[in-house]
Every structure is written in structure tokens, then in C-alpha cells.
Specification:
This is Tripartite-type tricarboxylate transporter receptor subunit TctC. The protein has 13 helices and nine strands. The chain is of the alpha/beta class and 328 residues long. Strands 1, 2, 3, 4, 5, 6, 7, 8 and 9 form a nine-stranded mixed beta sheet that branches.
Length: 328
């Protein structure tokens, strides 16, 4: 009897040893086959371009193919949800931005995953500021003009965005909240119709991704008033930040991307991905390629990413409450 008990204990100990060794072994050999990176938007957009830059660099670093698969739908949550339901082995991942990471959840939208429980963020893939622009025929010369007029005549200034609760909408409501002003939001289904109305004067201004209006800014067909990032960008050094132009210390509203995997992925694999991506963010070629589409590379370890998510969640939750933004 004692021998049987001893044999069982040895067997259980051995099983525990081998199961504990699996993640380490997986990390030692990871990756040994093709990785799938899901971009939850259509090809050609800023997130897609940034994802492809990182995927190409990852493939070279790992010596394995990293295949980008576009899965648009539900404002990014469809593709992210697919990745988070995959086998947690490090071979399926997604690029997740602010909407799929927290905004949908903060608005109470029904999602195929719980961002607070299911989303395993392992790397920061860079950030891009947005730009506050107006038409060349607009009487608005500076961001201070918008704030001053809105204080005198609440609601008289109209601004466009690529949809309700889109990054541009959220960034402008954040600006309005900090400045203590009210403006009229005009949502569009995308940037194309928005730009037409902006340049024809049907709306007063808009806050949009830099990459989407880069050519317009270079050509001088729109007037940039401010950048939403914490710092000015090298490609447009004369454009002030919102914090500078609006006297709004601490204002920052960037479009950012995270690399996310399902919960349960071996911690050693998470760490290997984090360390590899951080190394790529230091490489000149990757940094310059990201900068060409308006993205700034930045390194974060996994603990810093978790703190970043919490800080952003608190910030945008406050904006949603104070601005009374809803699902519709």
C-alpha cells in the first residue's frame, strides 16, 4: 500500500515537473512555425500599415513568417475577438487600438470578449497623434479661436469625426471637457465625406488621424491648428500641440496600438514577444517606417502596458461620463 502511494506521489510530481516545463520549452523553440497577426480593420488604413511594418520586422527577427490577416467588423472588436478565442500558444495575435481595448466596453457595447479579463496585451506597437484641422477659407486661425468663440457662443462651432465614439470624436470631447466648452458634433461614416464638408465649409473643424490627411497638410489644402500628442512631431514642427495652443496643460490623445493574445499564453512566450517588439522599436528602419505613417515607436514592458491601459481607461471613462457619449 505504501509503495503504491509512493509511486503515485512520484508520478504526480513528475507530471507537475513536465507540465511546468512545457511553457519554458515552448518559449525556447518559439516560434517554430508561421504566426498569424489579425488586423481588425480593412487593408490600407493606419492600423493596417503599422501592423504590417511590425509583422515584417517580427518575421525577420524570428526567422518565421508573420502573416497579416485583415478581419474588419464591429469597429475592431470582431478581429480582436477572434484572436482572443484562439489557442493560447502565441501563434495567433491581434492589433488592438483604443476602441477595441476599452472604448466599446466603457460604452456598454456587447463584445465577443471581456477586455478586462480576456485581453492579454504583450507589446506596445507605437502611437500616432491626431491633428485638429480646418478649411483654408475658415475664419478660425488658431485653436484659441475655437475655444474663445465656443465660450462666447456655446454650440456655435461644429466639428466632424469619423463616427460616434471614434478616436477623433473622443479626442475633441476631451478637449472640450478640459476647456470647459460646448461644441456641436457632426458624425460621418468615414474621413472622405468629412473632408469634403470640411473643405467646403459645412463644418468648422475636425480632429483626424495624421496619416489620413498627411497629403492634404503637405499640399496646404487644409489648415492644421494643433496636434493632439504630448509633443510636436518632426514632420510638422510648426504645428503646436493642443496643450500649447489651447493652454490645456496635460492634454494628450493619441491613436495607439497594442499586440494582444489570448489569456493563458505561456508567460515565457509573452515575455519573448515583448522583448522582441521592444528591440524592434529601437531599430532605425522600423522607427522610420512607422514615422512615415505618423506613428512614433515606443518601448514598454508588460507591467508598463498594464498601467498604461488602466490610465487610459480612467481618462476615457471620465470623458464619456462628462460628455454624455452613448452607444448611439
Amino acid at each position: 500500500m505504501k509503495l503504491n502511494i509512493l509511486s503515485r506521489m512520484i508520478g504526480l510530481a513528475a507530471a507537475g515537473f513536465f507540465s511546468a516545463a512545457v511553457p519554458v520549452q515552448a518559449a525556447d523553440t518559439y516560434p517554430d512555425r508561421t504566426i498569424q497577426m489579425i488586423v481588425p480593420y480593412a487593408p490600407g488604413g493606419t492600423t493596417d500599415l503599422a501592423g504590417r511594418i511590425v509583422a515584417k520586422a517580427m518575421g525577420a527577427a524570428f526567422g518565421q513568417s508573420v502573416v497579416v490577416e485583415n478581419k474588419p467588423g464591429a469597429a475592431g472588436s470582431l478581429g480582436v475577438g477572434q484572436a482572443l478565442r484562439s489557442v493560447p500558444d502565441g501563434y495567433t495575435m491581434a492589433v488592438s487600438g483604443v476602441s477595441s481595448t476599452m472604448i466599446h466596453d466603457l460604452l456598454g457595447r456587447e463584445l465577443p470578449y471581456d477586455p478586462k479579463k480576456d485581453l492579454n496585451a504583450v507589446a506596445y506597437l507605437g502611437s500616432s497623434g491626431m491633428v485638429v484641422i480646418t478649411g483654408n477659407n475658415s475664419g478660425l486661425k488658431t485653436l484659441a479661436d475655437i475655444i474663445e468663440r465656443s465660450k462666447k457662443e456655446p454650440g456655435s462651432i461644429s466639428f466632424g469625426s469619423a463616427g460616434n465614439a471614434s478616436p477623433g470624436h473622443m479626442a475633441t470631447e476631451y478637449l472640450a471637457s478640459m476647456a470647459g466648452i460646448k461644441m456641436t458634433h457632426v458624425p460621418y461614416t468615414g474621413d472622405s465625406a468629412l473632408m469634403t464638408d470640411l473643405m467646403s465649409g459645412r463644418i468648422d473643424f475636425a480632429t483626424v488621424g495624421i496619416a489620413s490627411v498627411f497629403s492634404h497638410m503637405k499640399a496646404g489644402s487644409v489648415r492644421p491648428l494643433a496636434i493632439t500628442s504630448a509633443e510636436r512631431i518632426s514632420t510638422f514642427p510648426d504645428v503646436p500641440t493642443v496643450a500649447e495652443a489651447g493652454d490645456l496643460a496635460g492634454y494628450e490623445a493619441d491613436i495607439w496600438n497594442l499586440l494582444v493574445l489570448p489569456k493563458g499564453t505561456p508567460a515565457a512566450v509573452d515575455q519573448k514577444l515583448n522583448q522582441t517588439i521592444n528591440q524592434l522599436m529601437r531599430e532605425k528602419g522600423v522607427r522610420e517606417s512607422l514615422l512615415e505613417i505618423g506613428f512614433t515607436a515606443r518601448e514598454m514592458d508588460i507591467a508598463e502596458i498594464q498601467n498604461f491601459i488602466q490610465t487610459e481607461r480612467e481618462k476615457w471613462g471620465k470623458v464619456i461620463r462628462e460628455s454624455n457619449i452613448n452607444v448611439e
